[in-house]
Amino acid sequence: MTDTPNDDAFKSRTIKRSMVALEQVLAKALDDFAGDNSSLRAKALAIFEPALRRARDIGLAEVVMIEGNKGKPGATTDTPTESEQALAQTLDRRMTLNEYQDFARKTALYPGLSLKEDSFSVQGATYTALGLAGEAGEVANKVKKILRDDNSHLTHERLFQIRDELGGVLWYVAMLSHELGISLESVARNNIRILEAREKRGTLHGDGDER
Predict the structure, then answer these.
(1) Please, what's the b/e burial string for 91-112 (b: 16 or more CB within 10 A of its CB; e: otherwise)?
(2) Of all helices (H) and strands (E), which one includes residue 174?
(3) Quick count: other Cβ atoms within 10 Å of Cβ 181?
(4) Average confidence (pLDDT) over 172-188
(5) DSSP annotation string for 93-157
(6) What is the b/e burial string over 53-87, where b = at least 16 CB atoms within 10 angstroms of the residue's CB?
(7) More confidently predicted of 111 and 116
(8) Per-residue pLDDT, 79
(9) pLDDT band at 118 (very low <50, low <70, confident <90, very high)
């Protein structure tokens, strides 16, 4: 049985393909416009990236709404659930680090997941720490491919791949923080405090955690 334009599967696939095609068109446009001129490429990205990110977010929200309604009696893509509406609203505005951490927690499924904020699970902490190391390795691997496959040229496609992997890193940072009972915002604020103190002491350069 083939899909018709009214089928949810058809709509979902069409949106996903359009998102990919949009990225490919922009990637080629950047290559044609900037070539190997990294400065010109950076300026062009600064102009187009926000619009492209917005388009991706809108497309993702629509796909979530479509696929989230599969199998629900009487459900249509015009009547998203509360969770789907919340996701769409989140994608439609800036979010705080703690809001991201809360969203990440809702998507977490792994051994030892701490269900209470005041509980500690060594299994959950170990799982998320190992996951963080793995995702960081994926980022490094994608950057390595710029040297191996792209002649040291940052293509737009590779940029999106690295951004996706950085999202994985952020997810595991958020969940490891959750397992340790600390908020993601407190991690960021504490890091700022440390860096500001090092800057005042003139110790931004150097070795050691206590410099």
Answers:
(1) beeeeebeebbbebeeebeeee
(2) helix 156-179
(3) 13
(4) 96
(5) S---HHHHHHHHHHT---TT---STT---HHHHHHHHHHHHHHHHHHHHHHHHHHHTSTT---HH
(6) eeebbebbbbbbbbebbeeeeeeeeeebeeebeeb
(7) 111
(8) 55
(9) confident
Cα angle, residue 131 at apex, residues 125 and 135 outer, rounded to 5°: 145
- Count Cβ atoms below 10 Å from residue 143 Cβ, excluding itself: 14
What is this structure's pTM? 0.61
Q: How far apart are CA 185 and CA 95, in angstroms?
A: 11
What lies within 8 Å, CB to CB, of 43 at 6+ separation is: none
Alpha carbon of 140 to those of 98, 129, 130, 162: distances in Å?
Answer: 26, 17, 15, 9
Q: What is the 3-state secondary structure (H, E, C) of 43-79?
A: HHHHHHHHHHHHHHHHHHHHHHHHHHCCCCCCCCCCC
* CA 126 – CA 112 distance, rounded (Å): 9
